[in-house]
Amino acid sequence: MGSSGFSWTLPDHPKLPKGKPVAVVVLDGWGEANPDQYNCIHVAQTPVMDSLKNGAPEKWRLVKAHGTAVGLPSDDDMGNSEVGHNALGAGRIFAQGAKLVDQALASGKIYDGDGFNYIKESFESGTLHLIGLLSDGGVHSRLDQLQLLLKGVSERGAKKIRVHILTDGRDVLDGSSIGFVETLENDLLELRAKGVDAQIASGGGRMYVTMDRYENDWDVVKRGWDAQVLGEAPYKFKSALEAVKTLRAQPKANDQYLPPFVIVDDSGNAVGPVLDGDAVVTINFRADRMVMLAKALEYADFDNFDRVRVPKIRYAGMLQYDGELKLPSRYLVSPPEIDRTSGEYLVKNGIRTFACSETVKFGHVTFFWNGNRSGYFDATKEEYVEVPSDSGITFNVAPNMKALEIAEKARDALLSGKFDQVRVNLPNGDMVGHTGDIEATVVACKAADEAVKIILDAVEQVGGIYLVTADHGNAEDMVKRNKSGKPLLDKNDRIQILTSHTLQPVPVAIGGPGLHPGVKFRNDIQTPGLANVAATVMNLHGFEAPADYEQTLIEVADN
């Protein structure tokens, strides 16, 4: 018990029995959207998920999987697999992304961490390079965070600072780049007055320079590398303000697609190439458009483009951008410290747990589910199985992925009688959805549905209970849309494919022969989200959730 009175023992649920095996199925990238030809879940044959949705209305509902529901700053922030599984497993909402950075900057904690102490070793004789999106859009980065960081590092010994800017025009108005550059230039001028050699060294538009994602076009990253690291670009200017104004004056120019430029001194030399002994920080907090650059900065064996010169640097991200790849290995702001997760509680209350997915999502159903924690809570009560993902191909080539193998392992675990909870992630909707291949994503959704059937059949056989849900949307909407919801067309009148996650809600379905007949979804929770699932699962195991968990989604009617 300890002096605080804390106990791992969960109280028994007053109405729900213990001892029924529970299958928890997470469909990755499976949201709910209007049915049309770009909704791959709607187009695909998904009889099992359809039957859950069209079955008992009190056993199927939608929950929020983006924005504030998963700890992100605003409801313009789409969900992702990491924050989604954190919420599903933790049962509470923890600050993520920008919010974490804000807290670390406000408290000064950012300067106490391993990441900062690592890059600080370069301050004495090297240059600190800050690379990222210059914008107050708040989707990938925020200008005020960069301003605070500049102040903080200069107060802590950074003598030479170079900022490599990427103009936005996507999350903010086109043309706003000029004002952001003016603001930054004023700040750097003040730093120079204090004896810090601080200036902008290079730039370019985010969609043409550096910020590609999902390995769509490595040339975008190479253009950035050439300007930022090598100090080489087709355009050379004396100042960033002159650069942005001049390049914006070209026909059809916009902030998103400004060509790369470098700032040069009076002799025509670039003012800020990255050299041996320098430190580099990528300042974006959002991961998806920093991962490719992080690979180029961090990996010794890298062959996606010719880096020409690979300086020996100290590199840190604002955050870790990929928890699976542990990339980058150094970062200024640590992930949220999540304690007392549902997984740990249940294991400590005797729930024998089996978790399985394939490589690309295995970490989500284990590490992220368990509060960013590796390994078992109790190896005698848990088994985690990773099915190797296909490698060397894009996922649209084999859209079935390993759904069948995952489902069979879950089935076998249920039938073995050795486990009380069997938890899986079926990655198809997300991983194939990211390729933007609509036909393949339809196949992927069908494969995931077939996998759900195998698992639910096994639940039926053992008299168990199922909870089927998702971590965020993706496959349910594959096209970019205007404000009224109509598909956007490109200049050749082709639809613009949406490869990203969405802001859509996701389903939660419950059932199975072991489910108490009085159980139904409540309708008194204002905006239920993924974090409400953990307490729900605890109830299905016959326990009450801890008092500080988000409320359970279910109630038990007295029959």
UniProtKB/TrEMBL annotation:
The keyword Signal does not apply. Residues 101-322 form the BPG-independent PGAM N-terminal domain. GO terms for cellular component: cytoplasm. GO terms for molecular function: manganese ion binding; phosphoglycerate mutase activity. Pathway: Carbohydrate degradation; glycolysis; pyruvate from D-glyceraldehyde 3-phosphate: step 3/5. Mn(2+) 1 binds at D430, H434, H501. It comes from the Eukaryota. Its cofactor is Mn(2+). Its EC number is 5.4.2.12. Its main location: cytoplasm. Pfam families: iPGM_N, Metalloenzyme. It is found in: Cytoplasm. It catalyses: (2R)-2-phosphoglycerate = (2R)-3-phosphoglycerate. One of its GO terms (biological process) is carbohydrate metabolic process. It is an enzyme of class 5 (isomerase). Substrate binds at H140, R170, D171, R206, R213, R286, A287, D288, R289, K361. Belongs to the BPG-independent phosphoglycerate mutase family. This is phosphoglycerate mutase (2,3-diphosphoglycerate-independent). It comes from Zea mays (Maize).
